[in-house]
User: What shape does this take?
Amino acid sequence: MNKLQSEKDYESVRDQVKKERDPERLLVSICAGSGCGAYGTEEVREALEKEISKNGLKRKVEVKVTGCHGFCEQGPIMVIHPEGTFYPKVKPGDIPEIVAETIVNGKVIKSKLYKDPVSKKRIAKEEDIPFYKGQHRIVFGNNGMIDPTKIDDYIAVDGYSALVKVLFSMSSEEVISAIKESGLRGRGGGGFPTGIKWETCRKAHGDIRYVMCNADEGDPGAYMDRSLLEGNPHSVLEGMIIGAYAIGSHDGFIYVRNEYPLAVKNIGIAIKQAEEYGLLGKNILGSGFDFTVKISRGGGAFICGESTALMRSLEGQVGRPRAKYIHTVDKGYRDSPSTLNNVETWANVPIIINKGAEWYASLGTERSKGTKVFSLVGKVRNTGLVEVPMGASLRTIIFDIGGGIPKKRKFKAVQTGGPSGGCIPEDLLDLPVDYQRLAEVGSIMGSGGMIVMDQDTCMVDVARYFLEFLQEESCGQCVPCREGIKRLLEILTDICAGNGREGDMELLEELSGTVSKLSLCALGGTAPNPVLSTIRYFRKEYEAHIYDKKCPSGVCKELFYYEIDEKKCNGCHICCLRCPQEAISGEKKKVHTIDQEKCIKCSICYESCKVDAVAIK
Amino acid sequence: MAEAEGIRVDIEAVKGVIEEKYNNDPENVIMILQDISARYNYLPEETLYVVCRELEIPISLVYSVATFYKAFSLEPRGKYIINICLGTACHVRGAEKIKETLEQRLNIHGGETTEDLKFTLDAVRCVGCCALGPVITVNQKAHGGLNRAKALKVVEKYEKAA
Assistant: This one.
């Protein structure tokens, strides 16, 4: 491949690539994101390719292995275009029928279609499935059409056209004002206005500037950055090159978690291909602008998602944050002005350039513009990645798109913002999700993790869980965070073990104030959020633990026991067969009982009882 | 620091990686340690001294990096490293129970390695496969949608392969 030397070169390659695509040709898109991959995409792909060549269909059908489609619960996912027929949970054994019926005869196999858990109806097309219907996928939408290891696939959907526009018809200042006008704010959690960050960095003193992509997605329960890097790495790269041009930088880094092997691989391939095309490196597209990107793999430390810690880690140091009275846009990596943006933020940039700041700003709420990708996980039917305009309500996301709570359980809370966020209760479900509104109710947007909790989740245990996480991940250099979180965790552990005392809640609140005010960085500053928000909204659960020594959700093992309800038990005997401790006795068709001495509260009987006769006491 | 029996460190190979892949640049120390760790499953003591000499940085810095980041171990680890995801999504779907089950089965606690060096059991905070929770990864391959019985089956599969 010869390097592209001009705007014209790019256009001719793009037109050529588009011409080669036959819209009438069948395209089978198989998701190979990390989720579907774990369910066995590779075996499905092998079976499909074998079946296609066996039937001599190679010319008629193109098989595309793509990144994440978002509906991870239903993996491995297969979509057959141009019809858009959607087959979930495909197994290698399904392939012969799919090829014979759908690919050869153009018929839909009804029994293999997605069945909506709410309406119980079978749905044929991807776009008609409620999970996708309620979304607005501007960042994520192309994932299903792109093989992330092929740059031509990205160019076929007008990829890199924003870069061309910027390089040949916009000044750096114009790019910055477009980003400012769009209202784009940092998608990593802080929510800082991206355009202002770029402008400050551009104006900062120094000859060398750096741009970085924060792909150290550490929030437990959030994986949109992983899926973007895996599924559409060029969109992130294009955003970074545009940002570098605006800021006046020639060196970039992508700091990515080493726990994401596929993301590391795909972004590596993307960089190499972009360099071969002359879209990255010296004299990009003959414009005279130089920019190179290196990958740096993180060592598995949550704190390295914090900007100053990340930059220390890039320098080959231990990732300890520093105080931010000097901002990283003035003095960051190697003490030079540095701009760090999150994966999703970068991926928004080409869209803003292509569609215009005004269009982008028309999406969302007054002070939160555009869309946000959430990872909707936990106790929800349709788990996966969901992209909605800012301002969509929690109810829309969890119930309309997410399909509500499985197994007839009741919704209890939704946790947003990772360990720095909070838990939001049922009566706030109509809250429009944007930066301000979430902060008002004691949580944060964060990077977009949305963990749904049902009646079986203990909120005191959730607070304990996050504090345990934060205690492990605290870098340990400042006392309020290192010692404060430890003490908070001790109190919560006591409460969960039945050793809670009167005044514990007040002590938690007081200590939380100290930790959040005096900690050096945002990890400590926001660490008390899970504690404070659960006390605020689920005070009764704390009281039950402390005063009644009861865990109403049946999680804290010292504080509950299982009992079989005589009125409900129909003697089906399933619990008795499944109990690993042989603690349940009873004859078939008669009421069973649990021997409390033997019971280890593993919850197998509770989960397997079909008539809800096992009760938490 | 205990050295695993039978592990011989190829000093020249380590030097080669540092020079050719990472240009003897001290900024790359984390990735150099990752490469060593990927080869030996842990950081053998002598490799730390090689890193320190080749990059011309103090051993204290190498040691602080090797102990700060979770990815590194100074103790030998098993052929199969099982990471139990304890991310929030997995936590609310019962990851603790998977942990208990595997601890019982392998007779080790989280962070420990079986005596025959077959398995290391570790907990990680989110592997980004949240829709599949509870998840474990074995040498980076993800196994999702687990319950106790399924988790035991996964371990048995690797036991046979070992």
